[in-house]
Amino acid sequence: MEIKIDPDKCIGCGTCAAIAPGSFKMNDETNKAEVINPVTDSEETTKMGAESCPTAAIVIE
């Protein structure tokens, strides 16, 4: 599973990090989401976090 976040689309709402804190975190300097490596959430939780993004900035392959 590869997770990508488009920083141009990310608005920093933090929903992904709230739902899947073992997959995503918010960068305090850029106020954008980042992927945590290695991801410690289940695949299902990670997908829920990605799908919660209001701008579809997160893509899972």
Automatic annotation (TrEMBL):
Q: What does this protein do?
A: Ferredoxins are iron-sulfur proteins that transfer electrons in a wide variety of metabolic reactions.
| InterPro entries xref list | 3Fe4S_ferredoxin, 4Fe4S_Fe-S-bd, Fe-S_cluster_ET
| Ranges for domain 4Fe-4S ferredoxin-type | 1-29
Which Gene3D superfamilies does its entry note?
3.30.70.20
**UniProt protein name:** Ferredoxin
Q: Does the keyword Manganese apply?
A: no
Q: Which segments does the entry list as coiled coil?
A: none
Source species, please? Candidatus Magasanikbacteria bacterium RIFCSPLOWO2_12_FULL_43_12
Record-level Gene Ontology MF annotations: electron transfer activity; iron ion binding; iron-sulfur cluster binding
Which keywords, in A-to-Z order, does the entry hold?
Electron transport, Iron, Iron-sulfur, Metal-binding, Transport
